[in-house]
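Worked example 2:
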Amino acid sequence: MTQHDNNIEVLKKYFKDIRTSFNFDLSPDISIKQIENATKRFAKDLDPSSIIGFYDTTILNSGKSGYIFTDVKVYYIEIFGKPKTLWYDDIIEINLLDLEKKDCDRILQFKLLDGTSTEWTDSCLNKTPLLEFLSELLNLNKITSEEIGREDECSGACDQQTTKTDLLTTNPIITLKHENRLWNANYLKWHPILKEPSAFRYKYYKTLQNFCSKSTEDDQFSDELLTLFHNAFLSNDDIDNLDLEVEELNNEIFALFPYHYVFIIDCLYITSFDNPEKGRRVIENFKKLLTDNAQVKLEKLYQALFIEKEIISGYDHTYSLQEAWQKNNLFLSQSPIRYLVTANMSAGKSTLLNALVGKRINRVRNTACTAKIHYIQNQPFEDGFNYEYDHLLDLNASESVLLEDNIENQTGEIFVGTYFRNYIKPVPRVCFIDTPGVNSSTNKDHKEITEKTLASKEFDGIIYVMNAGKLGTEDEYKHLKHISEIAGEKPIIFIVNKLDKFRDQEDNVYESLKSINSELHELNFTNFIICPVSAYAGYLAKRKLWGDILSDDELDDFQLIYKKMRKHSYSLSKYYPKLKSVEPYELFEERQNKSSFQALQLLKESGLLGLEELLYYYDTNSKALFWQQFDFALSSTTDAIKKTSGELKEEFSKLFKS
């Protein structure tokens, strides 16, 4: 039986007792109409294949409200409430309250990984059998009492089929055949064909497919790019079934083709962007379709794209395509900065990486899972796509794909390419090498995998993430001692995370950082810097600035953290050098409203903006981090001045004028 089937069997034992008066159907006995209505009403990203049961709380069984239990989370909407989701992996503790009341009137309280809690109060649920069901489901999925409350810092979902021997013998260096192509972004959203009628787009794509298929044998990346082009050109119209005749490309058709240079660039990009020799063969095939004068012009285009690497005029409709091509070229000409990221579990490593990227690419969860090294690579501009190579290549990876491992992947490596949302401009090529948490009590392999990756020295710097609320533990000391012994001259950035959890009367950020600084020197660390950060605050700020829709809980968290970090004692920006690399202020002017300004201010006060400046200033020639020239601001914190919104805005304004 599959895990999905096992989950259904567990629910089958309890569902009759959980319900009070409404229908509770198990998969696969749930009507399509119910699922469609639920998707529209409160479960927008629902994967029907993951449903194990649907407790429909509508009188007519319409599916417009209720509780949908899936393999990984619950979608639900209570009476007069808003749509919500509850991830099983986010649950730290479940409590049954108001025991003196009838079971259906009791409260089921969920304490969550981020420190918040949520309650189910709906009287249509009998809470005791519901508690028993969820407890067994968590246990079935190997969530033990030791793991509850921990944050999964490994790079994906549990892959029980990957053996220790497989992982330990895997070289952690990138081995993907088309590594460079994961670094580049595509130009589809600016493609001139998008404005043409559907029939024209259909013929264009079919011609492109016919031509490229002759040059993309055994080329998984090119095949996936063709799929992207297909979806961009055809997905908005029901034209897949158009029965249009597409002629083989010949001299006459090509001469009349209004987008022939666009077509040539598309073919080169799909088949041979990173392979000039292959691009030469493609060009020679095109020359057979052109006059002598046109062949000369085509040769100039090839030279501009592959040799001179410049934009040239005189080629209709191609400027945006050439511009994107050359941005990719310039980006790929840089040597990448590789940061190995390591931590004990519950330090907030996954949240930090999500914050640096500005997107949810790593799952923040509390289950331990099998080790995979996760390479997260940035791209030169935002194209709207996330690339992932996890046994299979997916150039339009959804959030759910990014958050789950492919169990067929036996290599121990996952690669992701995406644009890093940021206010630092320009950002160089960066790769974060995400390693498993080293103190998993159930997976001893994690520590060995991380230590083997550290020993390889195939990185330029180390990012070590600490939980500010759990400093001084034995696990922390052991891992720090190991790092001090093997790091050598590699620069280390110590991230002190979760400082938004501090309390004024109980904690002191400045004194905590001073203590860490002293302890690191005692462990013989020399080439390091300490960076205080609230990764969660920075993550929320970025998502708000880039227009993502935050959940109700996230909006509440945003306001609470924003209010807190405006206080002098919690502001982290004072620990960083002046933010002189922030993206031009005019970008903020385009979003000038209270909400956006609060997000920009929180991004700064969270420490994330300062951290990014330190990470991305890098001298690729000397292999030295630019931030090593900065003095850590511990000694100057007492002179820091709390800035009001007006003062912050004035500071940014002066900054961008200089």
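The chain has three domains: 3-140, 179-332, 338-632. Residues 292-308 form the longest helix (17 residues).
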